[in-house]
Amino acid sequence: MLKTAKVKTFNDPIHHKMKLHPLLVHIINTPEFDRLRNIKQLGGAYHVYPGASNNRFEHSIGVAFLAGKLVKELKKTFRGLTRTDILCVEIAGLCHDLGHGPYSHTFEDFFLQELDRDQIPEEYRECNHIHELISCKIIDQMFHKNRAHFRKHRLDENHIATIKALIKGERDSGFLADKKFLYEVVANKFNEIDVDKWDYFTRDCHGLGIQHGFDLWRLLETAQVKKWNGELHIAYRDKVTTDILELFHTRTMVHMKALMLTYRIGDSLQYANKEFQVSYFDSEINAVQNTTLSGALGNMEAYLQLNDQVTEQIKLQSKSERNQQSEGFSKARELLERLVVRDIYSVMFEVKSKSEHKLNDKRDAIKKWITEHGRSQQLGVHMVKFEDKLNPPNVLVYDKHNRIKSLARMKIRKRPFEGCIRVYYKGRKRDKKRGGIALRKELEGHFRWLRTCRADF
Question: What pTM was estimated for this model as a whole?
């Protein structure tokens, strides 16, 4: 018979003392969850910001803690919530990022997006957030391996399906039909205000040394369940509107400062993809097998071996006698070694616009030119959208008389689209004056509008 476990307290620099349910503690102590210790939240930003060392492990624990806090606050205005409901939401918060690959979004946005379509398993090809689907696969695996612990807390296959729906924000999944507001706690597809963002904005700003102006505890303590257009939603007191607006401003600020620094690592993963060997144990044949980086997507045992250490493994494998003549390994190792000495890509041009359509056209034109002129080894182009995720019609607030309205009714509008294209020079710093300047002139000769977009090159 299993012993009765107790609630455990975790000390955290962001939320201080976090008390977690014993089942969450058991999940934290599994190999699948422990892997998150070695996946940085901000990808390659740690190479520029010395404090940006926070990882998916601590973030996921923080999200589980905030999810429990928020649902318990909502229970004050919606008595129908059960202990099992609360536990399911907490587990969803804890496990929502299990599927992230090396360097978090770098793997998804700069590696997977550049692969040929046939290199990606069919089930992931039309998915915008592959890590969510992989998280759900890992949860299934964890449930199968730890069934007794889940059963002890009266969780079965239906509860696991509910947890997966909460992670993906699938309001119409059929689970929790009379409590759909719970889909707004971890992955809020209705208005983007959720505990995942509360934690990672606060945690990322702490690591980056950025000041932010929103108070997550004011938001949490005013959260209530309200009916709007015939459905139950989470609403906040009107006096915290400034905190809501600041939440989305912080998102844009973090993206501008940190999430554009991972291009180089994505390139190195692409170069090493076909030659790099991911080793994993195949229990069916009781032997160690190997696959490629992209091949690991189709095998959970292989995928669970991937973390930020992959860059060190690439450098190590590239030195073996068999791989020394590999062009892919050679290029990957060179990029990673340059990263250590901060010989990073230089921004040649920065094109800003408030028209997404125009930016897409310009990016595609530059990409086409780079490919046609055989410059892909020397130049790179990447577009970043500083998109305001605020959706005023769906953000609900209530006043002291309990009257509900949306931010759109308060004449608050979504900020217009902003984005930029960055054209990178991939060569070494020592070659900028010779090769870089010549390439810049060549580009400006073809795209005259680039002359007004020069960066400090």
Answer: 0.92
